[in-house]
Specification:
single chain; mainly alpha; 8 helices; 76% helix
Length: 224
Amino acid sequence: MLMQLQYGQIVQYIPDFFAGALVALELSVLAFLIGVILGLVGAATITYGNMPARIAVRCYVSFFTNTPQLVQIFFLFFALPEFGILLSPYQAVLLGMTLNAAGYLTEIQRAGFQSIQRAEVEAAETLGFSRVQTVWYVIAPHIIRALYPALSNHYILMTLGTSMAAIFGVEELTGRALNANAISFRSFEIFSVTALIYIGLTIVASVILYALGRYFFRVKVKVF
């Protein structure tokens, strides 16, 4: 017997799905921005820090890039209460995504620091630039242009990765789809619509990142 698609039954859930999509966007944007800042500090420490600091950052990066993100969030949510630290599902997911992103973004931004030609810095010093001016006018633009595509791609992956928050009861897009499925049992219709919304999110994010890259940094980022 052929399955009869009944999308009309899930129309009532569409506004709820979009509300969940906003939660997913909030998680990805917050985790990404904080992760970029932590990653920048980590990359600068590996490049210019002393030996103990470099070893500490490398241990951090190694741990968070060699263990599953889901396990890291499980640890934050279920193990930290053993030490008296209670996190809500949203807080645990946000913290887990941020710490994981910081590990990967440290490596990405470290590559940017290493791509700087010593001659460019020496030229700035010859022209009498201060260290701050050298960072602002020479190093920062070079790093941003070199890393913008990689950072943009990582953000897209983080947006899709927010779906794991549903496991912890966070009502982002996938979580709300699971709730609707439990009530209506229209799995095909619900998850096909959910997939389309995710596709829409990534396309919109790609277009925005492309526009920002072109306008501010003169960088072309591949759009989906």
